[in-house]
Sequence to fold (359 residues):
Amino acid sequence: MRIRDLILSVLALAALAAPGGWADEMSPEQRKAVRKGLEWLARNQHKDGHWSDQYPVTMTAISGMALLMEGSTIREGKYKDNIRRAVDWLMAHSQPNGMIGNPNMPGEAGRYMYGHGFGTLFLSCVVGEEEEGDRRRRLVDILERACKFSHAAQTNRGGWGYISAREGGNFDEGSVTITQVQALRAARNAGIAVPQQAIKMAQKYLSDSTDSSGGVVYSLGSGMAAGGGRPALTAAAIACGFSFGDYNSPLIKKWFKFCQQNLQGLGGARMGHDEYTHYYYAQAIYILGEDGYARLFPNSKPSERLTWSGYKKENFPGMISSQSSDGSWSGGMVGANFITPVYLTILQLDNAALPIYQR
Fold:
């Protein structure tokens, strides 16, 4: 372990040992919504461990992440059996070439890199809790091959597309790139060997994809003028920048300013990808906390500053009130199987249960 990583690990442990750790207090309304949502997830898991017949690899991974954020693990907690079954299902769908998923599965054929990325992210968050020797070794092997597959699927510009660069004609786009970056970061956090070149190329890709307005464009391969900067991708880029350990670069500042100027809260007029957008934007503002924005922009007015408490005040009441009586959320681009674990992820950031989402 490098000295810098060791210092960061010690500081992290010290913070967790302090009263309250990094976790913020959840309101009673927030806790009730989370409890109902998690119970809905548990009820709707298939017996073999997966969720949803539409994009099952992705939905299984993000649902498993939502259960992990409650504090349960594969060894203990209310949802340990659900988590273990999800892990079993994803392990069973690891391919010899390293892909997590199956391109012949309905809903996965033309976009398997999404499922692969989210699957790698989820399994990276559980491998450290696996105590059974043979199973742990198998998980490590799956993740090492998954990271190599991601690197091999990367385009020569440093991004990723819906399918591998070789099969997709070197096409790349921002949302899949974000998914891969977080997955690789989580794998590295778990001690998995990650090709350093893949990270460096991805960092350059996000920088090169930023236009003059500070927004991240849809696809670098399609040209910088293709639609201009996208708020959803820019919010996701901030979360990835934080994953890289970049907390105060000029690029991070550009992205934040772009998002402030172009993003609405979840209570406003709905945008086509607002669940996806806030899945990442909430992570970024949570990491800012109460004074991170002031450190980024010391000359800003207090009324201009983004804070986690302000984000919660603006977005959580509408999010909670829109929950269905059965515990799910509906609407969005994919439906309840996507929006429910996404909203549960946002509502549970205060738990600070997973390193990938911690300050």
About this structure: Residues 232 and 333 are 13 Å apart (CA to CA). Strands lie at 216-217, 229-230.
